């Protein structure tokens, strides 16, 4: 499993003059930025850029780079200015990352082999960011054939047709059975809402990762071996 180094960095807001005078320039670096965001952890889970330093095998994460917006599905080679605060705020970022130049940008076509396998939910990133009981997530499954996404949710069975164009996936409205489960309907509704926004489907070893149009990781599954 790749080692993720969570590095605190500045969100993409323009610093004030007072902040600029508190910044010291450290170095320039070349980053390979991966084509989709990942989850990193600070005060709470957040969507972060994932990158590798040039010639490095390990990945690191960053909340953002000033002047750069990730186009999901593209691999970037960036020249990045790394600065730090001389007197860092107690509850703020330690480092500032700023885009100097996009050296290269190329599309990454997903060749995910996902069909005719059964996937079990491992993580779901929803608005409240509250942890979900692992036993509940194991109830949720996903299978993909040549025509449909289908499986079992927190309470009901569900299905949705899909189409693909280049590396993007497009789902139709989700249909489900009508069983009522008192404590799980809110989670199920949120799961269906997230599933409806799926645009990219990526496999990584025994994991299936689903991303929305912004490149945010929204659902992650583990392959269930027969």
The appropriate CATH architecture of the largest domain is: Beta Barrel
**Strand portion, in percent?**
over 45%
Report the sheet with the most strands, covering strand number, pairing sense and barrel closure: 9 strands, antiparallel
Total DSSP helices? 3
Any idea what the shape is? Answer: globular
Count of DSSP strands: 16
Assign the structural class, choosing from mainly alpha, mainly beta, alpha/beta, alpha+beta, or little secondary structure.
Answer: mainly beta
CATH structural fold name of the largest domain: Lipocalin
What is the succession of H and E elements? EHEEEEEEEHEEEEEHEEE
Q: Give the mean pLDDT.
A: 83
**Count of folded domains:** 2
Unreliable residue stretches: 1-18
Spatial separation of the terminal alpha carbons: 23 Å
How helical, in percent, are the residues? Answer: under 10%
Q: What's the gyration radius in Å?
A: 20 Å
CATH class placement of the largest domain = Mainly Beta
């Amino acid at each position: 499993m790749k080692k993720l180094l969570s590095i605190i960095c500045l969100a993409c807001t323009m610093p004030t003059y007072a902040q600029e005078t508190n910044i010291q320039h450290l170095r320039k670096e070349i980053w390979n930025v991966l084509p989709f965001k990942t989850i990193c952890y600070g005060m709470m889970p957040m969507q972060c850029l994932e990158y590798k330093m040039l010639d490095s095998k390990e990945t690191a994460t960053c909340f953002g780079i000033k002047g750069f917006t990730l186009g999901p599905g593209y691999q970037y080679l960036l020249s990045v200015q790394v600065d730090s605060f001389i007197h860092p705020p107690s509850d703020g970022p330690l480092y500032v990352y700023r885009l100097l130049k996009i050296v290269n940008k190329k599309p990454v076509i997903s060749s995910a082999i996902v069909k005719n396998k059964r996937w079990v939910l491992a993580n779901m990133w929803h608005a409240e960011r509250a942890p979900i009981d692992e036993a509940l997530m194991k109830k949720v499954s996903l299978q993909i054939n040549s025509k449909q996404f289908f499986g079992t949710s927190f309470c009901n069975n569900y299905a949705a047709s899909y189409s693909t164009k280049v590396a993007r996936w497009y789902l139709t409205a989700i249909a489900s059975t009508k069983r009522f489960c008192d404590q799980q309907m809110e989670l199920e509704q949120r799961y269906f809402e997230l599933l409806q926004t799926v645009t990219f489907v990526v496999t990584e070893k025994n994991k299936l990762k689903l991303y929305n149009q912004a490149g945010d990781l929204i659902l992650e599954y583990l392959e269930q071996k027969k």
